Amino acid sequence: MVERAARVPVMVTQHPDWQLDELASIGRENLDPEHVARYDDKEDAGAAAEVALLTSLGYGPDSVLVDLGAGTGQFALAAAASFGRVVAVDPSPVMLGRLREAVRRQGSRLEVVEAGFLSYAHQGTAPDVVYSRWALHHLPDFWKSVALHRIRAMLPAGGLLRLSDVVFSFGVAEAAERIEAWCTAIGHDETQWTRAEAAEHVSDEHSTYSWLLEPMIEAAGFEIADAVYSEDRFLADYFLTATG
Ligand SMILES: C[S@@+](CC[C@H](N)C(=O)[O-])C[C@H]1O[C@@H](n2cnc3c(N)ncnc32)[C@H](O)[C@@H]1O
Question: Which mutation among 19, 23, 26 tests ligand 1's pocket best, with the greatest number of atoms within 8 A of CB?
């Protein structure tokens, strides 16, 4: 298993006046009780498959996992049943209200912490895995790189960051046409995400290009062990290994 050396976290305890306010960049819908109440009906995070993938890599009852941007906790709740210690982190009190309710209902061992990429301070044995799905795009690029450095500082050498997000794996010249097609395609099935939500994602949030994100990932001290891009080039799933 991986070495569990303590590392000094980047910007864990200092909150200068130029620190990004994570609640201000959280995404309007993540504080909207109606959106949060409908979230699990409109989005299937594929939690069982993700848990199975991690299990196939050798993680199990001795493993410590942290889920950053856990939302309603689809993955974290499933993971808590398979791994030793799982901490679900999210800055949205509305998301966490729903998650805490599920924890109580299920009698889950999942730990829930109200914090974000820039404020979570891990306590106890270092995590073997940091997991994050569809959350990093809430930070502008400078802060993404701070978040990635903080995650690297939390992990021992050899630790895993499983990162999935809305990431644009195409060039600038194609962007307008592809984004319009993506918003239109999403708008065709408004029982799930709506065209307005897709448009808001692009106009107000901070999804970036794969060719900007990947150098940031490497500069933070990760090797890109695997990168899978969706056919429409709007989603990316990474396995990232913390280098020594
Ligand atoms: C689209 S939801 C994804 C939830 C869950 N990971 C999933 O896959 O279903 C995005 C989540 O990111 C959270 N988020 C927003 N800003 C964040 C930040 N700075 N740090 C961590 N999470 C953040 C939101 O509160 C929300 O729960």
Answer: 26
